[in-house]
């Protein structure tokens, strides 16, 4: 087995920040040296690779549990290889992909087909949700939840047949499925009523800012409160995705993750953008759930710090720019972001809005704990060596040519950054270094029941 020493880094891990080194043998971390504890001469002489990490931060690889890589069926705008490459460049070493592809991942065959395809096309560690419908409970009950991370449920607006709105189906789903249910909560009836109201008042050509009025905080709250009430009634493990509004926050608790069965995720764009930003970015920042008010943005950030919100995920959702053209009704929703979330959060840290340890907790540790991912998400002896080296650097401005996603654009073009991802290790192998990719052995994620 090859041995690699990442030497003299500023390690950010498990709420601590300290100077140290990490020794890798094969795929795993075998020793973490802290402070005056340094490798022996025999260790140094036996190394295959030595990485000088002075002046750099070393963190666990990000685990992005919320991506839409569009593969299969929508590969004109993204595919497994292009988006996992963008993810790695952003410090993401493991991803969990959503089921609303073509075909939808709502059967075990479709799920297995994605797994087989990813084995030769995904560059980062991978897993795939299986999606719920009103008719596929038997498929969900037959799934192997050591390999399937969770069931994805759309309660409210969705595409295709993935909107689960049958009361009996919901009850059986919440009481019988033996795993985490990850839910998108927006009330379809509220959305349709709002849409009809504004079309009557303004007409069909609604400016894009009306998207946030159509998909308002009440649409989120109505659906989220229903999901939470059912989970409490039946003792379901429930994870509410992409929380965007202050009103929803009252439904969650400020507790340690280990003490919760009902948890919440938010995304960096809800911490950085609000409805006032449509004036500058237009339909590029149209997403579901919609951006809310500046007060919601501040409240969601406070909830993340307080522990009311448990995880961060990108909701990376690439579309071609041509598909993003249009108004509140015609432009598609979703933004590509997986490559830049870590850098965005580090900018918030630089401005003292977030602590680096909190970023690591919410994007590395908590996803591993919540989804019960085996031996990842932490820098620990015996764990897989998934890790990222980041350094502060002179200011640079994101340009279109920097974007690696297949759709070839980012809503954050023109933003200024003061950090860069230097190196990324996946399963002990160097996968990325200063803009260049190396072949690293990606693995399917394993989940502890």
Keywords:
single chain; about 450 residues; alpha/beta; Urease, subunit C, domain 1; TIM Barrel; 2 domains; nine-stranded mixed β-sheet
What is the number of domains? 2
Structural class: alpha/beta
What's the total helix number?
14
Distance between the termini: 30 Å
Unreliable parts: none
What is the CATH architecture annotation of the largest domain? Alpha-Beta Barrel
At the fourth level of CATH, the homologous superfamily of the largest domain is Metal-dependent hydrolases
Q: What is the beta-strand fraction?
A: 15-25%
Shape: globular
Helix fraction, binned, reads: 25-40%
Radius of gyration: 21 Å
The CATH topology name of the largest domain reads TIM Barrel
Strands, total number: 18
Q: Can you tell me the CATH class of the largest domain?
A: Alpha Beta
Q: Please summarize the sheet with the most strands.
A: 9 strands, mixed
Q: What is the arithmetic mean of pLDDT? A: 96
């Amino acid at each position: 087995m090859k041995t690699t020493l990442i030497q003299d880094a500023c390690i950010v891990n498990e709420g601590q920040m300290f100077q140290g080194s990490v020794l890798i043998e094969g795929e795993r971390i075998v020793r973490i040296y802290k402070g005056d504890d340094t490798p022996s001469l025999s260790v140094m002489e036996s190394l295959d690779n030595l990485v000088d990490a002075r002046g750099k931060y070393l963190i666990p690889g990000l685990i992005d549990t919320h991506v839409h890589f569009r593969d299969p069926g929508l590969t004109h705008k993204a595919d497994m290889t292009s988006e996992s490459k963008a993810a790695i460049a952003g410090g993401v070493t493991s991803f969990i992909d959503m089921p609303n592809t073509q075909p939808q991942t709502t059967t075990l065959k479709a799920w297995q087909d994605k797994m087989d395809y990813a084995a030769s096309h995904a560059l980062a560690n991978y897993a795939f949700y299986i999606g719920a419908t009103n008719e596929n409970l038997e498929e969900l009950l037959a799934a192997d939840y050591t390999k399937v991370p969770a069931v994805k449920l759309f309660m409210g607006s969705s595409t295709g047949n993935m909107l689960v709105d049958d009361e009996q189906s919901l009850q059986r789903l919440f009481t019988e499925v033996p795993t985490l249910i990850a839910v998108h909560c927006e009330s379809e009836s509220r959305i349709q009523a709002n849409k009809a109201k504004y079309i009557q008042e303004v007409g069909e050509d609604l400016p894009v800012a009306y998207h946030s009025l159509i998909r308002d905080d009440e649409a989120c709250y109505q659906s989220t409160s229903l999901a939470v009430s059912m989970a409490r009634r039946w003792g379901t493990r429930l994870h509410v995705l992409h929380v965007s509004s202050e009103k929803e926050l009252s439904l969650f608790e400020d507790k340690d993750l280990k003490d919760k069965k009902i948890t919440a995720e938010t995304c960096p764009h809800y911490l950085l953008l609000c409805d006032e930003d449509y004036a500058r970015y237009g339909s590029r920042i149209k997403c579901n759930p919609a951006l809310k008010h500046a007060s919601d943005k501040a409240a969601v950030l406070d909830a993340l710090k307080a522990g009311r919100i448990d995880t961060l995920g990108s909701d990376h959702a690439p579309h071609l720019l041509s598909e993003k053209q249009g108004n509140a009704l015609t432009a598609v929703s979703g933004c590509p972001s997986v490559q830049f979330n870590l850098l965005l959060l580090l900018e918030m840290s630089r401005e003292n809005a977030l602590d680096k340890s909190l970023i690591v907790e919410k994007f590395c540790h908590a996803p591993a704990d919540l989804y019960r991912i085996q031996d990842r998400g932490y820098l620990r002896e015996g764990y897989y060596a998934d890790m990222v080296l980041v350094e502060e650097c002179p200011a640079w401005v994101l340009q279109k040519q920097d974007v690696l996603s297949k759709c070839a654009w980012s809503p954050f073009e023109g933003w200024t950054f003061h950090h860069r991802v230097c190196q990324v290790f996946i399963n002990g192998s160097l996968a990325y270094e200063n803009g260049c990719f190396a072949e690293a052995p990606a693995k399917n994620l394993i989940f502890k029941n």
